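Teaching assistant's notes for section 4

Start the section by putting this record on the projector. Ask students to predict, before seeing the second block, whether Lipopolysaccharide heptosyltransferase family protein will look compact or extended. Collect guesses on the board.
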Amino acid sequence: MNKTIVTTRQEPIPRKGIFRILVCRPNHRLGNTILLTPLITELEQRYKGAEIDIISEGDIAEEVFASFFSVKNVFCLPRRGFKHPVAFLGLLHQVRRTSYDLIVDPCLGSNFSRTLTRFLKGRYKLGFSDEASGSGLTHAVPTSVARKHMAKRPVNLLRWSATEHWTEQRDYPTLDIRLTEPEHAQGRHVIGELLSESQQTVTPPVVGIFANATGAKRYPMEWWSEFIATFKQLSPQASIIELIPAHGHSMLGAEWPGYYSSDIRRMGAVMAGMDLLISADCGVMHLAVASKVPTVGMFSVTDASVYAPYGLGSCPLLTRGMSAQEAARQVVAAFPGLLGQPAALAAVRSGTQGVATDDLIGDPFGLDRRVLSP
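Reveal the predicted structure now:
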C-alpha cells in the first residue's frame, strides 16, 4: 500500500470552539515533564478560556502543574502500566469518557503516545507525522517542522497547525513551573537560614550547585572540587549552597551547606532565591530554569541543541575536552556583573587564553557570543 505523504497544509485548527484540550505526554521523567510547560503556555495564549487536561506517567506532573490555573486534570498513568493492567486500563477508560475538542500528541516518534491519541476521543487530533493518512490524526504536521530543542518542538507543532501562513517565530515561551509568592518567600527564608548557619552572606551572588546526573553525564567529585576551588578563587564573594539529589547524599563531601527535599516545588522555590545555578544536564537543571534562576547547564556527552537551558540568562556550557578549572573560568567570564571582580576578571582573561569562546553558548548577560542554533 502506498503511503500518502504530507505535502500540503490542512485547514488550520480554528481558534473558536476549542474549550476542552488534552495533552498526551505519558512520561515519568522530571525533565521531559518540565519541557512540556512552554506548550501549555502556548495553548493558553491561543485558546483563552479553555481547560487543559494532561496525561502523564507517575506523579511528577501533578507537582509541576499544581499552580497552573488552566490545568484541570493531570491523569497519572502508573509507571510500567502493563504490570498494573487494572489501574492502567481503568484510568484510560476514565479519560475516554470525555470528548475533547483538541488532543495534542507533542511527541516525535513515540508509538505509545500515538496509540493513546488514537484511542481517546477528540474532534481534532494533532501530532507529528509525515503520513497524511493512517496516522490517526486530523492534523498531521511534517516532522521537518519539529525543532531540535525538546521544549520548542511542540510549540512549533501548534503554531504550524493553527496558522495559515507558517513562518517560524524566534520567541518561545520559557520553562516555568509558576512558583507562587508564598513558595518564593519560603525559598528565600531557607536560603537565609542555610547561609547564616554556614557563616556565608546572603548578599549576591548566592550560587547553587547540583552535582548529580545519570550515567556518563555525571562529573566526579574530584572534578567538582577543582571547579569550585577555581570558582571561589575568581569569585571569593560568592556564597555556595549544594542542592542534594533524590538519594539524599551530598555529592560534594558535605563541604557546603545543602538543601534536600523530595518535593519538586520546594526544591524549585529554594533555587528561585539564588542568583545562579550550576548543574550538569539533568532534570534538576530544567527545574532550575523553570524556577526562573539563571542556569548554566554543563554538557559533556548529550546534545546541547536538544536539551540546552534557554531564556532569562540561562545558557549551556560544552565541557567536552575542558578541564574543571577552564569550566570555572568560563562561567565567571560569562557573568562578569554577578561574579566578577577586577582582579578576578584579569585572572580569567589570562587563564582562558587558548580556550575557545564558542564552548560557552548563549548570551546570558549581553556577551557577544554565538547564540545556540535550533
